[in-house]
Specification:
By secondary structure, this protein is mostly beta strands. Among the domains are: 37 residues, no CATH class; 107 residues, icosahedral virus (Jelly Rolls), CATH 2.60.120.660. The protein is 14% helix and 37% strand. The protein contains one helix and eleven strands; from the N terminus they run ββαβββββββββ. The strands form three sheets. Strands 3, 5, 8, 9 and 11 form a five-stranded antiparallel beta sheet that branches. Strands 4-10-6-7 form a four-stranded antiparallel beta sheet, with no helix packed on it. The model has no long low-confidence stretch (mean pLDDT 84).
């Protein structure tokens, strides 16, 4: 009778006379013993791993951080993280997001004027958003609108004053727009202080357009 190479299980050959009960009992005893040995080895390895860092050092100063149920280090174990200094014209740092943009200074984007679902009630140009900057700066204008009931010709202009003088950017010029919703590609520009920035919408049919938009300092 042969034996298997790893666990030494009895393996009958074609001409062997065997007692099936004895054969199965012997093999099951070998398998049971080996499985128990494997389980003991796993427990021993885990115990050794757990013991590599003393419990007193887990999540403690001078020790190692633990992980929460999401796999992240708990905030309570992060210690005191100093905040960065305020930003300057030559260094990055904290910025006041509500501040109006000032040319040459790193200021985060802030919306300075906006309109939501403003109905265009006449066929004359209607201002939906306006802002007069206190300092020269870069800005971005965004416009979206929806047409209700029937198709309407739509004109959208953005007016501002740059160092080169008064400017008008025409985003749409009497564009025929069927019933639906539309969004205009944002327009970026530099405007000088003291002169208004305006977004105007004109519809060929009154009460057919609801416009939204905003002016943002960037």
């Amino acid at each position: 009778m042969k034996s298997t190479p790893n666990y030494g299980l009895q393996q009958p050959e074609p001409n062997d006379t065997i007692d099936l009960v004895t054969l199965e009992t012997n093999n099951m005893n070998v398998i049971d013993a080996q499985m128990k040995a494997n389980a003991n080895a796993v427990v021993a390895a885990q115990t050794a791993a757990n013991g590599s860092v003393p419990q007193s050092k887990l999540g403690a100063a001078g020790g190692v951080a633990t992980l929460d149920s999401n796999g992240n280090v708990p905030v309570s174990q992060l210690g005191n993280v100093p905040l960065p200094a305020n930003a300057t014209s030559s260094a990055t740092g904290l910025v006041e997001v509500a501040a109006a943009p000032v040319s040459g200074a790193p200021v985060a984007s802030s919306q300075v004027a906006s309109a939501k679902e403003m109905q265009i009630t006449s066929t004359s140009a209607q201002t939906i958003a306006s802002y007069t900057p206190a300092a020269n700066g870069n800005f971005e204008a965004r416009v979206s609108f929806r047409v209700v009931i029937a198709a309407t010709n739509v004109t959208i202009t953005i007016g501002y004053t740059s160092v080169g003088g008064a400017q008008t950017y025409t985003a749409l010029n009497a564009q025929a727009c069927p019933v639906g919703e539309y969004s205009i590609v944002p327009f970026s520009f530099n405007a000088i202080a003291g002169q208004p920035i305006t977004i105007k919408v004109t519809a060929s049919v009154a009460n057919q357009i609801y416009a939204s938009g905003g002016i943002t300092g960037v």
